[in-house]
Known about the structure:
Bound molecules: ligand NPW, potassium ion
Subunit structure: Homotetramer.
GO molecular function, one term: ADP-dependent NAD(P)H-hydrate dehydratase activity
Largest sheet: 12 strands, mixed
Catalytic activity: (6S)-NADPHX + ADP = AMP + phosphate + NADPH + H(+); (6R)-NADPHX = (6S)-NADPHX; (6S)-NADHX + ADP = AMP + phosphate + NADH + H(+); (6R)-NADHX = (6S)-NADHX
Shape: elongated
Radius of gyration: 26 Å
Binding site for (6S)-NADPHX: 88-92, 154-160, 165, 183, 285, 356, 411, 479
Distance between the termini: 20 Å
InterPro entries: Carbohydrate_kinase_pred_CS, CARKD, Nnr, Ribokinase-like, YjeF_N_dom, YjeF_N_dom_sf
Amino acid sequence: MRYITDAKEAKQIDNISINEIGIPSLVLMERAALGVVEEIEKVYGELSANACVKRKTEDNFLNSQRCKKSAELKNVNSKILVVAGMGNNGADGVAAARMLEHDGIKTAIKLVGNIEHASEEMKKQLEIAKNLGISFVTDMKKNEYDIIVDAIFGIGLSREITGEYREIIEKINGSNSYIVSVDISSGVDATGGKILGTAVKADMTVTFGNLKRGMLLFPGAVYSGEIKVKDIGFPDKAVESVSPKAYTFEKNDLYCMLPQRKMRTNKGSYGKVLVIAGCEAMCGACYFSAAAAYRAGCGLVRVLTAKENMQILKTKLPEAIVGSYDEEFEDGIDFTPKKEVEEAIGWADVIVIGPGLGKSIKAKLLVKRILKVKDKTVVIDADGLNILAEFIENKEHDLGNLGTNFILTPHLKEMSRLAGKTTDEIKNDMPYYATAQAECNIVLKDARTVVGEGRNIPDGKIYINTSGNNALATGGSGDVLSGIIAGIAAQDIKMKPALAAAFGVYVHGLTAEKYTETKSRYSMTASDIIDMLQDVMPR
Length: 539
Ligand SMILES: NC(=O)C1=CN([C@@H]2O[C@H](COP(=O)(O)OP(=O)(O)OC[C@H]3O[C@@H](n4cnc5c(N)ncnc54)[C@H](OP(=O)(O)O)[C@@H]3O)[C@@H](O)[C@H]2O)[C@@H](O)CC1
Ligand SMILES: [K+]
């Protein structure tokens, strides 16, 4: 598990490390600059060997790829230009320039901003650089440098970028150079990922201590390139006392998140998932969800679906207990769920409702019933969410009333209906909409899915997913996710629903990474996601 900080938390960690624990600011800065230099020298080595770097497009931002380029970028004088602002981000850049020169790589510095406003550390770094005779330039010629280091603004960016700052950022973006941003791309808001007027389109960002939210969330993610996190010596004590609200998973978490498979266990030991899904002639979504729950490791899956789907489900997924909710409706539209539905609800540890369920009266009555469940984790997905949105619109329900046992899995459009906001509003502040609107847990799905714990959960966390790729943009992918989350939650009913949801999202993403190691990202289907679970779940 890795912390992700916002601008305020990152500054607090700086502050505690320096002012309370007593690590000198210049010591941290020296390590930060060394971290930048280490990464630059790797790139520089490739450039010197006539390899160059392909600038990324939005589509392949997750996979910054180096490639051969024929353009003649080599310059006999200065190879690297550090563009430095007047704060400590600029100071990191000036320190890095000094170290690059020390290592024999010709480096120049271009200052931006009013030197009278330079921070104390910046003044010190400038003094050292001048004493060493590092060259300063006043102009930045296009394509003169192999590498440009963006050290204009870091986490101290506080407003829209205008004037000379804007001009230089546009010049940097218009160059052919490989661009390395120090700590965060200048122009990206470290908290929300917004672009404050303009921003540097980095090929690589070397960030210090912890990932910043803004470089993972859109649109900031597109401007960050490949991200390298450098440990510059912020003590754990400082990080823990700030206890950042956001986190992400890493591969080694796979082995500690799920309960161990002990020797003397049976199918009853790993939980029971009930999937209420599929309407007449809509069987696929139900199958995907149920099959994924099994592959995610739960012990038993039971399905309640439309009568017409039963045979095909029994054939395609013989492992599942298949029943129908249809019999329950024989009394007409005034029915209340009776035997089979009530019995199945009582049986389950975790319930999924919604995939392919349709919006019929039957579906609405089923959702209404499930919304009353209080004592088990419930995943509401797809049509379940659309029906819930309708209830909310008709004032029959309130998003705020759903308890902490519920996990909603909306994509942006579904969240827009649930929250009564535009998709742009949701898109621009995903952490807020994943946490602040409801008491329940929300899996807000996008290329960078955000999972939030309800607004009233003390110390509620936000999970920002970093696994996966665009191979997941395929029909049925969401149905599979609902099943994975339920399958994980069922194995440990004490696990917080938000944690099960976040881990499910992470595992779902890993399937795409695994798949595209050997196969085309254009070809992955929902069935492939289910199959790949065998390769990504712990052995
Ligand atoms: N603390 C430490 O020792 C360590 C810090 N570290 C490094 O320091 C970075 C944070 O440094 P920081 O706090 O000095 O902020 P930074 O990002 O340089 O920007 C502040 C400057 O920008 C200016 N400014 C802001 N917005 C503007 C705008 N739109 N347009 C124009 N100007 C604008 C602002 O001006 P002002 O608002 O004061 O007028 C001020 O001059 C961090 O990201 C990391 O790289 C590491 O070395 C580890 C140790
Ligand atoms: K920067």
